[in-house]
Amino acid sequence: MTIDKSWTTIRRRGSSNEFWNGLQHFLQMAKPFVNDRGFIKYPCRRCLNNASHQLEDLESHIFRNGFMFGYNQWIHHGEPATGDAGTTVAGPIGGIHERDEMFDVLDDIISEDADEDAVGGPSSNDQYDDLFAALRSKLYPGVSSFSSLNFLVKLMYLKVLNKWTNKSFDELLKLLKLAFPKIDLVESHYEAKKLMTKMGLGYSSIHVCKNDCALFWKENSLKDTCPVCSESQWKLQSGKRSGKNVPHKVLRYFPVGPRLKRLFATSKTAKLMRWHSTGKSKDNDVMRHPVDGKSWQEFDKRHPHFAGDVRNVRLGLAADGFNPFGNMSLSYSMWPVVLTTYNLPPWICMKAEYLMLSLLILGPQSPGKDIDLFLRPLIDELKELWVHGLDTRDVASENGVFRMRAALLWTVNDFPTRSSLSGWSGQGYRACPTCNEDTPSMRVIGKTTYFGHRRFLPTNHHWRSNLQFDGRTERKRPPRRFSTTDILEQLRRVKTSIPGKHPNYGGVKRKRGDDELN
């Protein structure tokens, strides 16, 4: 009976016990054929038996890159050149720990590298080698239920869940090392975080001008001074830069594309991303999800190409600011910008674990009128996802890879934040963005008040003739609905302003011209 090599062609490797057992048998078979330096040829689709490395990294290479095509006779790894391989059959190997649950997690993480047939070639990135090393390592001699990586991931989850400080986490690691000297665990939270970042879904730190004039990003990435106000991006001491470059402000940006791809790369959520196409309410009078609303249906009519693939993503954006220091007399502002995926069912899409933090805006003051400057990385990526899309592997589809596109349909925020996002001021005589220039308002004891709510009632409603409101009867019709042409004409009258809060340039508040509205 010949060697069973059918496992080498399996595409979904992380969730296949057949692939895992076949790989373990291959490793046992190849172990006696290392050279005097401990090296052996790597038959993965990246190395193609042309490169030799340490035996302990062979498992991760094959798991990540796949087994090379055409290598049907394992002459470099123990199979006789004549083709007579004896009666070896792939199966569970004694002495090797059983497949850890983290293999499925890593398979989701490196989905683009784990499916070369779909993406177009193996990856040359070795960032996962340390993860596989921690996955192969037992937490403690004699313990087979936990790998070092599995235990560390669960420990980090408990830290976040129970809001442990970094110092308390370091102390816990020291205690575990002291109580169990042979335990295979990282030394500190810094090392744990460094290992976890290799799982992806990290963030980018973008430096910001101290006056919110510009981002030191893309065309300004190599500049040391602001292109608008000429202020240095670094904090200075006595007019000179300190030994270590410390920026005035840092914007944390969490890319959206990789997070959306992860939803399709995970079997648990890949099917749920289609729920909106099958979970619509059958009762026309009931709305339990935005898909039942007129806005969603109108969007599908206007963009049939986007609506043609139910896997294309609909997003909602929420933003608000708060002081993280509570009641302390310290002026500080933190603005998280969060995205939610409306493809998911209503009992999931608003859960915390399915909300995606895209931006974290920090500083002594709120971004105010300059929030669009901080939103630029997110807007640029959303434009890219709308126009070009992103190649994404869908584990719930037989087609494998598809071109995922995304659209931002709604924003969810309070009235002050809406003013910052839209540019329409929430103060003054025309504060209502719906009534627009027809907003009924008047000045009462030094404050602007808004009245005329009875205009929205039917013309024959008895409250319209009631004098107890303001001593007058209401005969006006509801405010007119402004057309797209009217709104664009209003936008045309808005003058281009310089961003930032520098008093000589943008200023804290944007000055409006006489022909502008609110």
Extended strand count: 15
Q: Which geometry do the CA atoms define? A: globular
Beta-strand proportion: 5-15%
Strand order of the largest sheet: 4-3-7-10-9-8-13
**Structural class of the helices, strands and pairings?**
alpha+beta
Helical proportion, percent range: 25-40%
Structural account:
By secondary structure, the chain is an alpha+beta fold. Helix content is 28%, strand content 13%. It has helices at residues 17-30, 58-65, 102-109, 116-119, 129-136, 148-161, 166-179, 189-196, 256-265, 267-270, 275-278, 294-302, 304-307, 346-349, 371-374, 376-387, 415-422, 484-492, and strands at 39-41, 52-54, 204-208, 215-216, 236-237, 240-241, 249-253, 313-319, 333-341, 356-363, 390-393, 401-404, 406-412, 441-444, 447-450. The strands form 5 sheets. A 7-stranded mixed beta sheet has the order 4-3-7-10-9-8-13. The chain has a two-stranded antiparallel sheet with strand order 1-2. It has a two-stranded antiparallel sheet with strand order 5-6. A hairpin with a 2-residue loop joins strand 5 (236-237) and strand 6 (240-241). The longest helix has 14 residues, at 17-30.
